[in-house]
Amino acid sequence: MKIKLNSKTGFRIIFFLTVLWGQCALAQQTTVSGTVTDADGIPIPFVNIIVKGSSTGTSADMDGNYSIPAAPDATLVFSYVGFKTQEIEVNNRIQINLQLQEDVSALEEVVVVGYGTQQKKDLTSAISLVKSEQIQKRQTTTVAEGLQGLAPGVNVRGGGQPGQEATIQIRGLKNLQSANPLYVIDGLITTANRDFNPNDIESIQILKDAAAAAIYGSRAANGVVIITTKKGKQGPLQVTASSKMSLTSVPRYDLAGQEEFVRLNNMAYDNAGEPRQNLDLSVNTDWQDVVFRTGLIQDHNVSFSGGGENSSYFISANYFGNKGTVIDTDFDRVSLRVNTSGKKGIFSVGENLALSNAKTNEIGSPAADRGNPFIDVIRMFPTVPVYDENNPGGYGYGKPDVANTFGANPVAIANLIDQEMENFRIRGNLWAEIDPFPFLKYRFNFGYETSFDNYFYLRRKGNWTMNQADEPSMTNQNKAQSMTTLIENTISFNKDFGKHHVNLVAGMTYQKDRYEQINGTKRNLLTNPNTGSYFDVLDLGSEGVVGGFRNESVLISYLGRLEYNYDNRYLLNAVFRRDGSSKFSDTHKWGNFPSISAGWRISNEKFFDLKDVSDLKLRLSYGELGSGNIPDYEYMIFINTLGSMVAGKDQVLYPAATQIRLANPELRWETLKQTNIGIDLGLFDNSLQITADYFIARTEDVLFGFPILLSTGNDGGNPITNAATVENKGFEFNAAYNHVVNDDFSFNASINFNTLKNKLIKLGNGFNESIQGNTVTRAGQPVGMWYVLQTDGLFQSAEEVSNYTNSEGKIIMPDAQPGDIRFVDLNDDGQITNEDKDVVDSPWPDFEMGFNAGAQYKNFDFSMNWIGSFGATVYNGFRSTVDRFDDDTNYRSGIQPWTPENPDTNFPRVVKGTSLNARGDSDRWLEDGSFVRLKYIGVGYNVPNQVLEKIGFSKLRISLSGQNLLTFTKYGGLDPEFSNSNPFQRGVDFGAFPNLRTYSIGVELGF
Amino acid sequence: MKKTTTLSILASCLLAMFSCENDLDVENPNSLTVDQFWQTPEDAQQGVNSIYAMFYKDGTWARWMYFRLDLTSDEGFSKSPWVELADWTRFSYINYDFWEGNNVTWRDNYKAIFRANQVLAYVPDIEFSDEHKKQELLGEAKFMRGFYYYYTALLWENIPIVLNPSTTTELPKQATLEEVHQQIEADLNDAFNALPPQWDDANLGRPTKGAAKAMLAKLYMQQHQWEKAEAALAYLISGEGALYSLVNNFADNFTAANENNSESVFEIQYGDHNLGGTGETQDAAVSTTRSQFFAPRNIGWSDGQARFWLVDAFKQEKTADDKIDERLRYSLYYPDLTADFGDLIYGREWEWDDDECWFRKYQRNDRTTEDYFNPINYRLIRYADILLRYAEVLNELGRTSEAYTYVDQVRERAGMRPLAEAYPSIGNDKQAFLERLKTERVLELVGESVRWEDLKRWGDLDSQAAVDEIAKRDPDFENFEVGKHIRMPIPLSDVNNNPNLDQNPDY
Predict the structure, then answer these.
(1) Given B83, B108, B168, which is nearest A765 (Cβ)?
(2) Which residues, 6 or more positions from A345, have their beta carbon under 8 angstroms from its beta carbon?
(3) CB–CB of A653/A644 below 8 Å?
(4) Domain containing A91 — which CATH number?
(5) How far is residue A445's CA from residue A433's CA, in Å, rounded to a whole number?
(6) What is the distance between the alpha carbons of residues B493 and B474, in angstroms, rounded to a whole number?
(7) Chain B residue with minimal CA distance to A837?
(8) What are the boundaries of each domain within chain B?
(9) SS3 for A327-368, per residue?
């Protein structure tokens, strides 16, 4: 097209209307005229105007001016692509100027679907869109957190540790390796990890079913999150700056104070007939006060954007700092982005480049059960001092007969151990397009991502727990670089043939990933006599160890997609992808993955005539996706040559080598087969939009390292095999309502709902079931069901103990005493053993919901997000620690253990040293994990335009918000919204870092 | 024309892509693969060495075996505040998958067997210029496989026998104790034939013919095959393999000085060369952590200690010159140690309870603390044990009078009078002799991981009356159920996942 329209939308204009200048015979007709503009007052050309109920119509001119003959009581209908259709009563007026509202929920929304775009109305698969504003108003480290509750079927679990990356699961647990979806940022296949600045996001689409994700082939089985970053828009330089400050805090345990602790501890020792400890009553430490603090998050962002007719640029810089809510933790990120593009004739080129440097400081010790502050604070007694000069290093901790705990002093760990990670990442792509014909486009995309990672660990001399071995000072450091190279060639063909619209994409992609690391360790570090600190470079010290490795993988794919649209009524979409991966052996390298989907826009059928239904579409899809999400070289069997043995008179080392880990050379692609049925419904001019989807996703040959027999002697990780078939069936529903009451007031609300039924169809390796911790995974049942002993109240008397017999009269728990737990002898063998365990509950929620609402009144706006999860049974690891009493810890405040004087309780008698009541494998620790949480609530104020003009700004906005302020739950742990990355222990909350309560204030300005 | 150019650019771009499929063949730059290994005699040697490296792992002799053998027996017990850990030394087994108490030892024993199986599967195909060397290496592997099956059977009895390199999908069949014993016997006999009577200085610590015979003797004794046991022991005492003698100083058996001495029949070699963990990294420790776990409170983890009846047992009989048996000094830390012998405990006065005592053998009393890197070799089979065993076997064969001299050799080093002189009432009473021998074995060998097999062999765990007797010394045996606790529960995960494996009786 030669004519450049001064149109904001820039869409091609299509006339459907035949303008009829019929004879206006009726005397009462007058002429109405006016100007149609958009919300910013810019004229909209060629808007269609008809007189309702007649054949009279016209269209506005280039400057938005129109004039139309109409009766004084007539109604004019204004419509235009991209804007909401409005009906205005003439009401005796002769001039009507109108602002058309942009149709935010319009079906004409363009959706990025991978190697191309589609209009939302033409979608045949399950894709969710999330608007950037919704993500950016929250205070988040990663994109995933921002998605929480906004899209049905997208389950996000966050955590409050600085730099912690939220876990995200799309449509359930489809495989067992990693639930993380594939992220595609501006065409670069990558991860939207904490190095990525969420402020740069322009839009997010989530491809949920196989047909949608198919074009990305392998690795897309968990769904795809496509992120498009902001681009410059035509016009002069626009500057926006935003700044957000947040105060954060962690929820706290309700722990016993010193007095209550002492009373309960003495009771436990008395009941065991053991002498009481000599608790140090002069000490009263509140470990939570010592360890937790108010955190501070700062998020400062500035961007510059603009462009000419054929070019655009966008530059942004961001600083994100998070001083953690736990001592000695923080996270800092500096990032910079430059996106530019240009066009000349049939050529266009562009690049997206992001640089970031992120640094975290974490608390933690080498021992798995120590150094987690959420466990340490409950294992330390109020009678243990923070500092104790008599201990090596000077910190207080357990002491035999005085404070019998192996809990670790978190202050000691914070000060004795430094743990820092820093990475500098360059992520970007460069693309070029040629459009030799209007219907043909060739695109070349080169993506490159590299990260330079530094890890630093320093362990000073000193102890943090009772009886700890004397360990030398030590530093361990590594330097690593990761590199991803992506080369993509795609050709797309796009043409209408009458009512037939055809879009073809064909292409080939090549991706190479590489990670190299060198590392070193030194012990017995020297101290600098001037500063007293260690020389922490790898030069000084002894016992040096150096190491390194390099991992490499290559993925080559061919892809093709056909989109066919007949008359906007019948839609067909077919995708084929062939993937080759270096991660499989030669015979299993290649896999073929087809998918097909179809849609029927019933509302465009002639016979369809329901006034209130503005859009109705049925969708059906089936797709197969391959997944090769396993470590590099997994199919190879290796020899470990690092071992050594001592021998000889001089006790010297001799080298040793052997195979340690088993491997499975026959590994092949995991295949997800997913069927999706969906319906899209728009009502009342699309002010109410409803989307519902039902899916069946079956994953075959699931790649997973189930525990193999210990009698194989395998060590170094369970070898991955094609080990299982998993099925997820789910229903997703989303309803969104937008209503503009008048110029001053509008509101919107949306609700989403999803259910998911997970089921293991079969296990591989000839296994019947896999028991992990307190869960069992069995064919025919969901993954990771609770498999524990059942409790049946407390024995109230010796008589009850002796009356508790099996069918043959054998006393089941002869050693029990009044106040002890009665366990159920399920197999009736007269004793309590592992055989009495049974599946009691599911860690999977029955359904999950999100509720979002917003309103705008004049310059104020308000919004909130709620999330809810219902019906999951979870394991309260906190309670299983503090309520056990066989091993000393601090306790919950207010518990009422059974005593002869207090028999009316469900809390068993407390006894030191016997694990009878304390056993971790009973339903005593299972709780209802349902919750409803106000995830986000915020208000904003936009300074009015009149004021802004005076001060020369185009935008000034102030906002106040809070996150996780309200939670309704019966769960007794810190946070019902915890996450556990082990798929079999997803319901186990043991020291998970809780979500933070956050209060934020933000300022955003533009000029 | 322009369009033609464009199209040819497109075509060449796509063609360039098709040529890169070879890139999918990615070699691993980090490690040898199995088919690249097992090619040379050096590979065979390193493969054999890796079996010995299993001595440095948690589940075996670097840590938990001492809990299974010394603490579970009536010599030791655990007061660990880690209750589950302590429960597993007192027949209170609740979670059969408890890693530290059960699974890691099961796994690590099979891990060692896997290593031996690799040698036995791959080395026969390797070409050696020195065929004798090859047989020697195979003999070492056979010895080690027999060794690990011996201890695995001692703990769990009804175990699967795996004789080939492990695969991911194997479901090995459970064997009876008799079948396991037959397998051990075959392996040890093969080992005996292939191993040298002695090693050169550079290879001290590898098993010899004598070590193979000693292991066979242990095996036969557990099976009450006294004649076979007699023959095996005689090999070490009076036969071709009579290369051993008691060292003068009893304490030399438990310190870093005088390792691999004349008394050592089979000795686990430890060092403090590496200060890493117990995994498979290049700095993995080659040490034992026993002393860190057995050291008294405030010094080490104090997870295991000795029963006080041992102190009394030592003090029941004075030496020929009317002194306290000095073996007590080097065997235990007890309240009167300083008063009796002048020794401090890690430089401290006694600061523990009056009725407590701790194991001293292999502890490092020359220090003030312990750590994970104890380099003291563990004399798993020493000649004193052989002598006492020989006495026991002769007594069982009705040759009680011949047995005295072997007990006396051991007593003499300790300064004790000859047995007949000290206990004239025993005479040729077989039962009385055995009862005395039980005490002699404790006094000489306490804390040396033989007590559990002794109790099993003597039948002291087979009747309630005998167990009640033990429970007087060690109340942990009040939990002991005859017929059940004589063997441990097999790790639940293997029972659940291997249809060919049943849980041990009554579990």
Answers:
(1) B168
(2) none
(3) yes
(4) 2.60.40.1120
(5) 9
(6) 31
(7) B95
(8) 40-75+97-255+485-497
(9) CCCEEEEEEEEEEEEEEECCEEEEEEEEEEEEEEECCCCCCC
Cα pseudo-dihedral A131, A134, A140, A146, rounded to 10? -60
Q: So what's the ipTM on this one?
A: 0.94
Q: Where are the beta strands (DSSP E) in B363-485?
A: 378-382
Amino acid at A648: G
Residues of chain A with pLDDT under 50: 1-27, 105-107
Query: Which of chain B's residues have a Cβ under 8 Å away from the Cβ of A487?
Result: 17
CA angle centred on A52, ends A51 and A57, rounded to 5°: 30
**Strands A30-37 and A98-99, how do they pair?**
parallel
Pick from A467, A711, A766: CB nearest B172: A711
**Cα separation, B94 vs B83, whole angstroms:** 11
Residue A763 belongs to a domain: no
- CATH for B40-75+97-255+485-497 is 1.25.40.390
Contact predicate A82/A102, CB 8 Å: yes
At A136, list the tokens.
Answer: 């950016």
pLDDT at B7 (0 to 100): 58
Packing angle of the helix pair B131-156, B177-194 (nearest 10 deg): 150
- Substitution target from A461, A466, A711 for chain B, most B beta carbons within 10 A: A711
Is A425 inside a domain boundary?
A: no
**How many structural domains does chain A have?**
1
Residue A787 maps to a domain: no
Task: Give how far B212 is from chain A: nearest CA, Å.
Answer: 18
pLDDT at B378 over 90: yes
Quickly count helices (H) and strands (E) in chain B.
20, 7
| Separation of alpha carbons A739 and A726, rounded Å | 42
| Residue A88 contacts residue A98 (beta carbons within 8 Å) | yes
H or E element that contains B338: helix B337-341
Question: In whole angstroms, what is the distance from residue A733 CA to residue A851 CA?
Answer: 12
**CB neighbours of residue B367 within 10 Å:** 15
How far away is chain A from the Cα of B343, in angstroms, using its nearest Cα? 22
| A703 contact partners, CB below 8 Å, separation of at least 6 | A175, A176, A177, A627, A628, A629, A630, A667, A670, A720, A721, A722, A723
Identify which of B115, B160, B371 has the shortest CB distance to residue A658: B115
Tens digit of pLDDT for each residue in A49-90? 888 877 777 878 777 888 888 888 888 888 776 677 788 888
Torsion A897-A901-A903-A904 (CA) sign: negative
- Reduced to 3 states (helix: H, G, I; strand: E, B; else coil), residue A591 is strand
- Is the separation of the CB atoms in A841 and A875 below 8 Å? no
**CB distance A244 to A1005 below 8 Å:** no
- Residue found by looking up tokens 């525990």 in the block: A707
Could you tell me which of B224, B117, B95, B110 has the C-alpha nearest to residue B159? B110
Cβ neighbours of A887 in B, within 8 Å = 81-83
| Interchain pair B32, A638: CB under 8 A | yes
**Residue A760, in any domain of the structure:** no
> What long-range pairs does A493-502 form, CB within 8 A, spacing at least 24?
A493/A439, A493/A440, A493/A441, A494/A439, A494/A440, A494/A441, A495/A439, A499/A566, A499/A567, A500/A564, A500/A565, A500/A566, A501/A563, A501/A564, A501/A565, A501/A566, A502/A562, A502/A563, A502/A564, A502/A565
Q: How far is CA A259 from CA A285, A292, A398, B464, in A?
A: 11, 22, 18, 46
B103-122 residues touching A, CB cutoff 8 A: 103, 106-108, 110-115, 118
Q: How many CB pairs under 8 A join A and B?
A: 300
pLDDT tens column, A229-258: 888 888 888 899 999 999 999 999 999 999
